[in-house]
Amino acid sequence: MSTSSTTPAGEVFSLFPTPLMRVTGVLPPALVRGLVEHFSAQARQDNNSSARLVHTRMLKPDDSPLLVDVAALVSAPLAEFGALLFGERMGWAVKEMWVNVMETGGHQSMHNHANSFASGVIYLTGTDESSRTVFMKSPGGTDFSFKNDHPDMVTGPFNAEKWISPAPSAGDLVLFPSYLMHAVPPNQGARRISLAFNAIPMRLNSWGYTVGFSG
């Protein structure tokens, strides 16, 4: 499947696009406040690359009634996003969750998420323009080794190396394939709090050979 557009020279197809789903207001304000109040103080694990960023331990939904509510509210978007990835609506489970607290000057280096298929970020505060989540191509991919990079070059979907997500509001969700590289540039604004999670489908079926996930 692909999307297409028309140029003066002919029809252009966008082959194998990568899905990213944005859902505004997935969490109600009362739940957002509860998560901030309960988990901000539990974020004590230092980030490997930024002294102004700390995390909670890895959490499971049943560690707190608040997280049970979060998992329930993201289940429908996860099913829709999973259908984009695998061509079928199926059950999904949130595998792990953690809260990130980034102070002014903090950043998150480029990374992706292992041992999962879909990942998400729920913003628990507003985000300064400087620290919007950036998604980028994996380094060392199959692109040409030479670049056309100068002030007059026009950046488009076929030559861009990164995409800056829209400014979120508290309670907004972004879902993306776990392999997709992403980062947060240095935060020039106020404290930035988010809840990240990884998710897996209940099973994958390849012509009768079924792989199930449990735990």
Shape: globular
Per CATH, what is the topology?
Jelly Rolls
Q: Which structural class do the helices and strands define? A: alpha+beta
Number of helices: 2
Q: Tell me the series of helices and strands, N- to C-terminal.
A: EEEHEEHEEEEEEEEEE
Number of domains: 1
CATH class: Mainly Beta
What is the beta-strand fraction? 25-35%
Largest β-sheet summary: 7 strands, antiparallel
Q: C-alpha Rg, in Å? A: 19 Å
Span of the ends, CA to CA: 34 Å
Q: Poorly predicted ranges (pLDDT <50, ≥5 residues)?
A: none
- Describe the strand arrangement of the main beta sheet, using strand numbers: 3-11-8-13-6-5-4
Q: Give the overall pLDDT as a whole number.
A: 95
CATH superfamily: q2cbj1_9rhob like domain
Short synopsis of the structure:
By secondary structure, the protein is of the alpha+beta class. The chain has helices at residues 29-39, 65-86, and strands spanning 2-7, 10-15, 21-23, 45-46, 53-55, 92-102, 108-111, 118-123, 134-136, 162-164, 173-177, 181-184, 192-201, 203-206, 209-212.
